[in-house]
Amino acid sequence: MPPWKPEPGYGEFVGSRLLTDAQIAAITGWVDLGAPLGDLAESPPAPTPTDAWQLGPPDLIVEITEAYRLPADGADKLRNFVIPIPISKRRYVKAWEFRTNNPRVVHHATMMLDPTRTSRQMDARDPEPGYEGLISLSAKNPDGYFLGWTPGQTPYSVPEEMAWSLDPDTDLVLMLHLRPSDKPEAIAARLGLYFSDAPPTLTPAMVRLNRQDIDIPPGVARYAITDSYTLPVDVDGFSVQPHAHSLAKEISGLAILPDGTTKRLIRIGNWDFHWQDAYRYAKPVGLPAGTRLTMQYTYDNSDANHANPNKPSRRVTYGQRSSDEMGDLWIQVLPRNPADLPALTVSLRAKLLPQNISGYQMMLAADPDNPGLHDDLALLSVEAGDLEQAARQFAETLRLRPDAAAAHYNFGNVLLPLGRLDQAEREFRRALELD
């Protein structure tokens, strides 16, 4: 335990917990005999539960200082806790472990770093610990890493030469997806960090294959999504992490090399939302330029799916809540030539931007009066060069928050390059009146 989900023959991973054929035969034979109890005198001592960190005492523990009280009922919560990281000089993180006092109601955790004060200001405007909604776009992942926790995920460590940098005056933004449990729950969480003494010499990149336009009709027993990305430079694959919710049944990732050969990256034929992990390859997987990385996920939204939380089944779309669905395959790669990293990063951002926009559009369809979603979609639209779309989204934010100075400023700021100068001036003047 936790159970090992990747199938043999689809990647060799560090820490594999597969049973051998001999072990399976022994268990099968014992079951066939009626599962006899055996001699209790030969029983080993029961394991002693421990609250110790699995990698030993961390060099730094960053934690929520005031417990959040989750209501007994209602919709899922996406609660972001902003925690200053108390370091006085740059440190290099080689391992980390997330822990919570209440894994029964914590659906998952996402951790990002914000060197600005944006997330802290959003937290200050909410009277309770943390703030509700998605993480601000000012918060980022460390270069080449996705910091997350899902049920069953074990502590993660990396080679010291691939440690990631952590600078002073940075806030940890810890987003907890919380599910009410029919009684009030006190939520606490902490992150243990382990430091390397030397700065890293290698910087990875993170390929994200995903679909954010998932729309599964009720009763459909096999709904498939696919995505792909062609590598522009030579890389080595170091790790892979799949993510989906309850309706997923099968996930697979492949690499199709320029010569037509295929490398199997991962396959889980019996997906279980409750046991997810990140998997590091035992040996780096060579992926030359021109390799096409692909994923395929299938979902079962029929009443016959015992994991389907909806009885009877209903339409399920992309979103962050446990009642929504997701489909991601993160593949960490290291460019063989470090000089190729900037070009790879730009290419990956361009690949992901349309899907991010699609995802925000899906979430807004389900939650049209969420000003934070309108703001984020506007910012992504600016990045994509669609200023008209950005103006429409900022206008929606103003409709929802007419007395917010920032909303008037943002709207005016996108009206300027559109040449709507008189209207921009009115928005700026109104922003100044309010603040």
Structure description:
The protein is of the alpha+beta class and 435 residues long. The protein is globular and about 85 Å long. α3 (341-366) packs antiparallel against α4, α5 runs antiparallel to α6 (405-415) and α6 (405-415) runs antiparallel to α7 (421-434). It folds into three domains: 60-196, Copper type II, ascorbate-dependent monooxygenase, N-terminal domain (Jelly Rolls, Sandwich); 205-349, Sandwich (Jelly Rolls); 371-434, Serine Threonine Protein Phosphatase 5, Tetratricopeptide repeat. The chain has helices at residues 21-32, 118-124, 341-366, 371-384, 387-400, 405-415, 421-434, and strands spanning 60-63, 68-70, 77-84, 91-100, 106-114, 131-132, 147-149, 156-157, 164-166, 171-178, 185-187, 189-196, 205-210, 215-216, 223-230, 235-244, 248-256, 262-268, 279-287, 292-299, 316-317, 327-335. A hairpin with a 5-residue loop joins β17 and β18 (262-268). The protein is 23% helix and 31% strand. The mean pLDDT is 93. It is built from seven helices and 22 strands. Strands 1, 4, 8, 9 and 12 form a five-stranded antiparallel beta sheet that branches. Strands 6-3-10-5-7 form a five-stranded antiparallel beta sheet. A four-stranded antiparallel beta sheet has the order 13-22-16-19.
Short structural description:
Helix content is 23%, strand content 31%.
Question: What descriptors fit this protein?
Answer:
Serine Threonine Protein Phosphatase 5, Tetratricopeptide repeat, 22 strands, 7 helices, 5-stranded antiparallel β-sheet, Jelly Rolls, 435 residues, alpha+beta, globular
